[in-house]
Write a structure and sequence with these properties.
The protein is mainly alpha-helical and about 300 residues long. It has 14 helices and two strands. It is globular and about 50 Å long. The relative contact order is 0.12.
Length: about 300
């Protein structure tokens, strides 16, 4: 199949899932009654050409089951993407990373002002959870729990707090791993697990998917750190070298480029090993892990 070709890059592989997610986001993003200025900002922050890795991961994991709910899987993927987009909006704010470029366009606070950017991020976060509960599914509560835990104060937010040096974390590689486990890997862990929940998989299978997603998320961040050093703005779609300029802790700073590349490959191998129990059913998830080691943007 084309999307399993070894030559396909990450964007090509995710394209079908991204198109599907974009259709769902167009349908569900803005509720009736939202002020037009806020609606415009929400659309700007979400409908901006992202690869949709996280909803793609939800959908791939959801394909592992035979008793899944397609509407619930779609809502889970859209909800994860809304949380991801909100986190980017807030990350880019002057009080946080103070960045002016995201996915090749001005960041939300540059385009709409800080107040609207903050409120648009708040709107995306809260819309994600209402989107799940609107499904009426008996499994919606489990999805809310998975997403809330991974995106919340002990998950992604904890990673952001640590990244901003607003709490104490260990020095060296241990501290960087603490940040990346929470700031990046937690949401990919949630994505894989939520796909399993929407597919009505067993708890052991959902746990295995979560382990896969966590290792994949760490690998993704390692390669992101590498690209921040080696790629240019046109390739990245955001400001390169920003982490080094901001004295952020990165895997490259701790291990060097060669060490970071080895760690990224080792983490990808860990993700693959977590899927042993699924056999050939997990072919797409295995291919995704392989593609992440070849990222160029």
């Amino acid at each position: 199949m084309t999307d399993n070709s070894a030559s396909a890059d990450l964007g090509d592989f995710l394209a079908r899932y991204a198109q599907r997610c974009n259709e769902h986001l167009e349908q569900w993003l803005v509720e009736p009654g939202v002020p037009e200025g806020l609606a415009a900002a929400m659309r700007y922050c979400v409908m901006n050409g992202g690869k949709r890795l996280r909803p793609g991961l939800v959908q791939m994991a959801g394909e592992l089951g035979t008793d899944g709910d397609p509407d619930l899987t779609a809502r889970a993927g859209a909800a994860v993407e809304l949380v991801h987009c909100y986190s980017l909006v807030h990350d880019d704010l002057p009080a946080m990373d103070d960045d002016v470029l995201r996915r090749g366009r001005p960041t939300a606070h540059v385009q709409f002002g800080e107040a609207m950017a903050i409120l648009a991020g708040d709107a995306l976060l809260t819309r994600a959870f209402s989107l799940l509960t609107e499904s009426g599914s008996a499994r919606a509560g489990r999805l809310v729990l998975e997403l809330g835990r991974c995106a919340g104060p002990a998950g992604m937010i904890a990673g952001q707090v640590a990244d901003m040096k607003l709490c104490d974390v260990p020095e060296g590689l241990e501290g960087v791993t603490y940040i990346h486990l929470r700031k990046t890997a937690a949401l990919l862990k949630a994505s894989a697990a939520m796909g399993g929940v929407s597919a009505a998989l067993t708890d052991p299978d959902i746990d295995a998917l979560g382990q896969y997603g966590q290792a994949l998320g760490l690998a993704f961040q390692v390669f992101d750190d590498i690209l921040d050093v080696t790629a240019d703005a046109g390739t990245l779609g955001k400001t390169p070298g920003k982490d080094a300029d901001s004295d952020k802790r990165t895997i490259v700073a701790q291990l060097g480029l060669d060490g970071a590349r080895k760690l990224g490959k080792d983490l990808s191998d860990q993700a693959v090993a977590a899927l042993d129990g699924f056999g050939r059913r997990a072919e797409k998830l295995l291919h995704l892990a392989n593609l992440l080691t070849k990222r160029t943007h």
